[in-house]
Design brief:
membrane; about 45% helix; transmembrane helix; transmembrane; alpha+beta; MdtA-like_BSH; about 30% strand; 6-stranded antiparallel beta barrel
Length: about 325
């Protein structure tokens, strides 16, 4: 039982004990002589305390008792295959306790590994191409030379008219323009190489993903409850391979009367009491986390369930137990 429940129980018992004690004093005083009754300060004190204690006793923490709740699983997950292939290995069996992320089985990934190697080589080539600016520097050298050659011929023709033919001058001008275009082309090809690098990087990431999806890992910590395939069997994406359950927290599901449902019911502390085969009581603390908004028209009840801590695993799914809900 948690601290909240202990405090509420202690408060109710203390108020009840005080109420009965004061009632006894008042009764004794009232049955005494009339003169004592009329002016006795004990009588006045007793009745004052009664009027103070009675509302407090009535308003003290209210308890809703649910005679029978069913214990159910909360943390339960089916683990499927994420790729098609033959199971190369199965590393767990029923009853194995696993941690989140632990490898449970391996689908054959031979082809995926080869694709990964090819993608890695292609990325290496693309990286070198994306970082190689030799073509740009070569084109810039050729452009600078042809531009200067054109300028020399042009000045020579100005200084000595007709020393350079028109066709020769025109060819030099066209060569200079063509080399300028080659510089732009080299820049464009370098940008394309960088884009190819990004594409091959994506291809490598996809190859890594294809390897990863062939590893079947535990999505949560718990215990293997079912193993549905053995090594060597063919599986397809979405096909269930394992079932994992955890009983560290469980759901206690039951019903209360609709007129017992209040605003503070959700979030209220609960105590689940289980009696073992020897009749011994075992208590578990929890909290109401769900209150249905639907009322059963036949019996006027509302479904609720509480989340109960079960660190020692003493409470098991399928148990029937009692539950007390403490309201402020």
């Amino acid at each position: 039982m948690d601290r909240h429940s202990n405090v509420a129980t202690f408060t109710r018992r203390w108020i009840a004990a005080g109420f009965h004690a004061l009632a006894s004093v008042a009764t004794w005083a009232w049955r005494g002589p009339a003169r004592a009754r009329a002016g006795s300060p004990i009588v006045h004190l007793a009745f004052c305390c009664l009027f103070i204690t009675l509302p407090a006793a009535i308003a003290s923490g209210k308890t809703i008792d649910v005679d029978s709740v069913l214990i159910r699983l909360i943390d339960e997950v089916d683990v499927p295959a994420r790729a098609a292939g033959a199971l190369a290995a199965v590393h767990v069996s029923e009853g194995t306790v696993v941690e989140k992320g632990q490898l449970l089985a391996q689908i054959d990934d031979t082809e995926a590994q080869l694709d990964h190697k090819r993608a890695a080589y292609e990325l290496d080539i693309a990286t070198r191409d994306a970082e190689n600016d030799v073509a740009i520097r070569s084109a810039m050298k050729a452009r600078d030379y042809s531009q200067k050659q054109f300028e020399r011929l042009f000045r020579a023709n100005v200084d000595r008219p007709r020393s350079v033919s028109e066709s020769e001058l025109e060819k030099a001008r066209l060569d200079a323009e063509q080399d300028a275009f080659e510089v732009e082309k080299a820049h464009s090809e370098l940008e394309n190489a960088r884009t190819r690098k990004s594409l091959t990087a994506n291809a490598l990431a996809m190859a890594e993903r294809n390897i990863e999806v062939r590893r079947i890992v535990a999505p949560q910590s718990g215990e293997i409850a079912e193993v549905l395939h053995a090594a060597g069997e063919w599986v397809t994406p979405g096909e269930k391979i394992f079932r994992i359950v955890s009983i560290k927290r469980l759901r206690a599901e039951g019903f209360v009367q609709a007129d017992q449902v209040t605003r503070d019911l959700k979030g209220a502390p609960v105590t689940v009491v289980l009696r073992d085969e020897r009749g011994q009581r075992q208590s578990f603390s929890g909290t109401v986390v769900f209150v249905s908004r639907e009322i059963d028209p036949v019996n006027g009840q509302v479904r609720i369930w509480a989340e109960v801590d079960n660190p020692d695993g003493r409470l098991q799914p399928g148990h029937r137990a009692g539950m007390s809900i403490t309201l402020d």
